[in-house]
Design brief:
By secondary structure, this protein is an alpha+beta fold. The protein is built from two helices and six strands, in the order E-E-E-E-H-E-E-H. 35% of the residues lie in helices and 35% in strands.
């Protein structure tokens, strides 16, 4: 994966149509994965209720819509209680992308 930005605590990539940021906590063994994608049409108030509903049913992370930027985002936090191997990282990232795709698609269906 080509890294677009990185510093000592985070890195950013574009992957499968998502802007992905992976960050690590300096205080705790935590990894945070944020995925964001632009919504092409303006978000409606009902979509905020949908994201709240999605959050009630999402175990892995949280969904949000920023109406100012027209952006949908999904954020998940993972405790790093064991060594983070390449395979484990890809498994976590794949689950996050899957959950973000489901949330994004649900919002798009409400806009039609």
């Amino acid at each position: 994966m080509p890294i677009e930005y990185q510093d000592g605590m985070c890195l950013s990539i574009n992957l499968s149509g998502w802007y992905v940021q992976v960050s690590f906590s300096p205080l705790h063994p935590l990894m945070v994965i944020c995925l964001a994608r632009q919504i092409k049409t303006p978000a409606a108030i009902a979509q905020y209720l949908d994201t709240n509903d999605m959050n009630l049913h999402s175990i892995l992370g949280c969904h949000t819509i920023n109406s100012d930027t027209g952006c949908y985002a999904y954020r998940a936090t993972q405790w790093l209680d064991t060594e983070l191997t390449h395979e484990r990282f890809m498994e976590i990232l794949s689950r996050c992308i899957g959950e973000a795709e489901r949330g994004f698609e649900k919002i798009l269906k409400k806009q039609l």
